[in-house]
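Why do we care about 3D structure at all? Because function follows from shape, and shape follows, mostly, from sequence. That is the central idea of this module. The next example makes it concrete: a single protein chain, its amino acid sequence, and then its structure expressed as tokens.
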Amino acid sequence: MGKGIVNKFRTLFQLPPVQLSMYFAASIISPMRTFLFFSLLSTSLAGQAQTQLYFEDFEGTGAGFALNTTDVNSMMTGSNTWLVNNVYAGGNGDVVCLGFPVTYTIPSTASQPAGISSANGNYLHTASSEAVQDNILCCSFGAADGFCTDPGNHFARMTGDVSSMGFSDVTLTFWWLCNGGQQNYGEVYYSIDSGSSWNLISTPIAQYRNQPNWTQQTITLPAFGNQATLRFGFRFVNGSSLLGGSDPGFGIDDVLLEGDSQVQASIATLPLPGTALCAGGTLNVDHTITGSFLAGNQFNAELSDALGSFASPVVIGSVTSVVPQTIACVIPLATAPGTGYRIRVVGTMPAVVGSDNGSDITILAEPQAGVDGDVTLCKNTGSYSLLQYLGGSPDPGGTWTAPGGGQHGGVLNSATDNGGIYTYSVSGGGPCAPAEATVTVQLNDPPNAGIDANHAFCTNALPASLINLVTGGELTGIFWSNGQPVASPPMLPGTYELTYIVYGTAPCMDDSSDHVYEVVAAPNAGSNATVVVCANDPPVTLVTELNGTPDAGGTWTDPLGNAHSGLFFPGIDPTGLYDYVVAGAGPCLNDTSSLAVVVDPCTGIDEEAGRENSLRVWSSADRIVMEGPAMDEDRLVMIVDQLGRELFVLGNWPVGAEQVSYSLPMLEAAVYFVRVAGANTSSTFRLVPGN
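And the structure:
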């Protein structure tokens, strides 16, 4: 018989392949033994439910396992490596350690017993990387050499998924050996997500060591069952680098995964304690089971229609469990009233439909007060029905309670009622409790932009801020003009139409007021000035002598307070202050400036009589020059105003000098005098800057 047939019967009988082969060989000699074998086979087939899910004996290409992966923080290279071969013989080698050659001996790996499918054939095992370089390829590990070995972990894992869906009592079986040491041992892992994450198997063994001969290990865990992407892996932990343990390393062969077929399961839904329920109400549903359910199973409580049909059941509660547990359920609010409802429990793994509760159930409509709502309203905008602000479908005919507990009619008057929580109540019946819902009302004050107004301002008296225009309103708004916000008052003369808007908080509408803003140009009478005219000058137009740019059309008053034409006749009109008034147009006030008129006889430069020696004085834009006969004393040169007050000291005119020159100070347009003063004499001269 072929190896495949032997493995098949081995699966059924849980016998090593070699024993089956020996049995078949013996049966050829003994027909009676053949008869006994097939009788035993028939009996086993009748009572055995084991199914082989996976088997790897490493006799093929070895593609079923990936070697030296980085799973579980493992290394792809290092002092050890995973191999698949059929080498069991040890050998001697040498290694250079700390600069010195050291010899070592690796013992032969123990022969495999007859229980392994292909005894002494290919197997998965670790090997010292140094030993591999010396062509010693049996099962070993680096720390067993005793010298110059770095710690490191090495992983080998399945390359494909195994599905155990629909199987319970899934068992992993494999042959192994590992002498190792306290820090040198093997580990076994499983993954239920195609190797993305790994779980260490610690039951019944966490560390595989102290076993130099082949032995078989069987592991059954509930986590192996009903998995779509199940994988297994082996890791060798090499935690020491000196005298760490003894060969052999970690060796694996005949990796087998089997599972039991599921036992037929059933569910019985237990009777309910009452016969009437309320839509939206809660209840507990209990049930019993036979058989077993797989990990991840859900027990779902289902509600029929009003006629007891489960053609379109509604799940009203669930619990994830493999054993019966009370299921907390809620009857959906939308359940129509009826008297023929039933409830049953169904399972998902496996899919089992349980019996119903055995009697009809009456479901009453739960009173509906609606869903809590909230609304923001603007004060003084009318009356509102509160029922419209509840969500859901509230039953009509309920009662309202105002904030504070008083009764309320349900229509809110935004002018007289207060904001707060208004409660709507609907009474229940039978098992149904009364229902309540609330409407939270917020009342916002409407905005106030004040009253419309007209404003007039003079250009010399503009307000600092437009907000000063608001009368009787809030000062939080914005002024607008021609569709643009206005940040500051208009400055140029003209009439402006401004709109002041105070923005409301929804749902209150914005409020506005209209403002006509007129800017009137202020009158300009110029600024005060002084003019000196000669007694024989022609008439002088006074307005042209004022500083600045005075408006034309004003009126003049002479020093005696009489009206004046504004044309000054030297030698005829009185000297003194002439006032110029430009009338302002409301709201601008009149503007006034004064012109001091001085009449000079203009008889010569020397303004004083009785002097023996004549002097000459002239000025340019920035210099003043004086000439005269040399004198025998120092003289002080200064500039004085028309009242004789000293303004600037230009300097000394030294003894013996006939000409002096000084820097001319910056002077406003007016008539000034230069005074030359010595200890015994002094002279004064008229000075008009620039002449």
